[in-house]
Prior knowledge:
The structure holds 2 protein chains of 2 kinds. Chain A has helices at residues 3-14, 38-41, 45-59, 75-84, 93-103, 111-123, 143-162, 178-205, 209-231, 244-269, 274-301, 316-325, 327-336, 345-354, 357-376, 383-395; strands at 137-138, 141-142, 338-339, 342-343. Chain A is mainly alpha-helical. Chain A has one domain (3-16, 44-395): Farnesyl Diphosphate Synthase (Orthogonal Bundle). Mean pLDDT of chain A is 77; it is low at 1-44, 63-71 and 102-109. Chain B has one domain (12-27, 47-369): Farnesyl Diphosphate Synthase (Orthogonal Bundle). Helices cover 68% and strands 1% of the residues of chain B. Chain B is built from 18 helices and 2 strands. Chain B has helices spanning 14-24, 52-57, 63-70, 76-83, 93-110, 117-140, 152-156, 158-179, 182-203, 209-239, 243-270, 273-276, 282-285, 291-299, 303-308, 316-326, 329-348, 355-369; strands at 145-146, 149-150. In chain B, a hairpin with a 2-residue loop joins strand 1 (145-146) and strand 2. The two termini of chain B are 27 Å apart. Classes of the chains: A mainly alpha, B mainly alpha. The interface between A and B is large, with 43 and 40 residues.
Amino acid sequence: MNLRQLLLHLPRYLGASGSLRRLWWSPSLDTISSVGSWRGQSSKSPAHWNQVVSEAEKIVGYPTSFMSLRCLLSDELSNIAMQVRKLVGTQHPLLTTARGLVHDSWNSLQLRGLVVLLISKAAGPSSVNTSCQNYDMVSGIYSCQRSLAEITELIHTALLVHRGIVNLNELQSSDGPLKDMQFGNKIAILSGDFLLANACNGLALLQNTKVVELLASALMDLVQGVYHENSTSKESYITDDIGISTWKEQTFLSHGALLAKSCQAAMELAKHDAEVQDMAFQYGKHMAMSHKINSDVQPFVKEKTSDSMTFNLNSAPVVLHQEFLGRDLWIKQIGEAQEKGRLDYAKLRERIKAGKGVTSAIDLCRYHGNKALEALESFPPSEARSALENIVFAVTRFS
Amino acid sequence: VHRWKGLDLSQIPYINVVKHLTSACPNVYSISRFHHTTPDSKTHSGEKYTDPFKLGWRDLKGLYEDIRKELLISTSELKEMSEYYFDGKGKAFRPIIVALMARACNIHHNNSRHVQASQRTIALIAEMIHTASLVHDDVIDDASSRRGKHTVNKIWGEKKAVLAGDLILSAASIALARIGNTTVISILTQVIEDLVRGEFLQLGSKENESERFAHYLEKTFKKTASLIANSCKAVSVLGCPDPVVHEIAYQYGKNVGIAFQLIDDVLDFTSCSDQMGKPTSADLKLGLATGPVLFACQQFPEMNAMIMRRFSLPGDVDRARQYVLQSDGVQQTTYLAQQYCHEAIREISKLRPSPERDALIQLSEIVLTRDK
Lengths: 399, 372
């Protein structure tokens, strides 16, 4: 069973409904609105985004190449897919993660890997002759760089799975029986560990200690970033008392570090010099930041938003809004938007939209977008470079 | 015992193991951990034993401080969680073996009395990988105490505990990469993979009795012995270019590791929880059939049903425990552990004599006689 098949089967195990025709970025748009992803929520950019990505996929050659994530062929993970079925009916987050792997292409298995492949191609062949066996090139990308793209996805997915562990002493009766939630935790830990072990294995095969160190430190960053995200309580309706600079540091750890360091590692694999490596790092970092801010801004700029729609109180517009307002006034606003202990998100959203948080967030998104474009200038013009630019244009568009 | 030469015990199905044991040594049943005595107090090189833990520790001073330095984290709670088990109260069994093996190999190779910094780092990494897997295992098993204190998951919750485990693993990987040797990276990466696959093996069970024993030994190798075997191999690679030596180091670690776990499984039946720092009959409560149970099942076939339902019915755990204690399961598992230790000694004895080599021999005997 390959990944595609596995994921095709997963929703059936999970009891998910809805169209599965558009698992990946395919050109047809008809089912976008049924997919609860960022693209579905943003009414005008999807066509653009889809186009950007499907063109990018053509550039890197066979788009399914790193989807064959070898470990997913193994019995272990197929067994997990079967086991996950037992969790249907509970509220274990592993279910959401597994569904997300199928439905949510914006956060899905591919974007990071795709960027790693594009930047590899944009940088071009190695200036140094190497005799390494990993150095056969297909569509202008070394096979070791393709492995790296896959490893990046493995690490990202592993942490996605691990961030969905639940605390057993905080369970609500609506979550489902304790035994099932324990079981869900067990499967989530094991599958995350399994993905990580495969990532380590892939890294070892690359035979490059610098790349191993870069990706290991990316993993450490990511773990710290996820820790920050997890430790902000979603229930208390109080935001963290952090300024935008702390927010940026934490967001780099949780959303930027893996892509930045993977892009750098892709350059190292082709023996590009320190300057090129740094530019690749900068592109990965700023594109990821821009991307994250874009999705943070969506709940505030969409033409149609349902009143019940919630948003993250530690997202960029809210943190900026808080900074403009001052902590005390902000706490007051949150208090005013609460009714009988429940937060009225529609009301709070209007308050935030009335302030400067949203426009500053958009500015910040464009700032990072520009930084990403600047980094690309040191790469020679090519269709791969254009594709990387188009990704930036897509994530900085707010119309 | 010589008949065991060259045999890979983990490849032999259960029934054959028993046949082999009984034919090789007809009076096996008289041998038990409790009667086992160290044959002589002299080492093979004629020197008087010193405490192998003391000898190994000479190169490990500041081990836990150095591990804590590898965990470069700004968040104080995450740092506290990651450092929680590096409190200097563990046995440091793995680092000790690794340090002794490093010296034994260096002396064997060119009589060097020096331990390389990279070899010492392997000792740190071995302890870190071990600890990362403990933190995850405790969440998987919902364990509440370890080494006489609360587990990370009981104090900070499962969500954070899993991240602490991941963090320790990433720190170990960074340290490993900085050694700068791709062969060593591959060797220790194998451990990470084995640990996960071992955990998967533990999840499943086999109906067929002989398959069940092979399954158990394979799980034991992956979950416990692989780390010891491969970190021994890693220091040998760093210290000596001869592949024969690498294989000796690996085989020593593998055999000692399996023996260590077999005795651990025995202690789960014979020790009281105060000594172990963790509850006993823990394996049965988790539904796991370890060596003593599998041997006992030979004498009491009625245990089969309990094994298959993973001791899930009320009273199963107590009844299984009684069956095991009435059977020769404990003695037979201990005997099997002795065979692995003999094999370990046979391997390590191929190295040139040194105090460290002899300490490794002694250590394999301590593995058999330990009571906690």
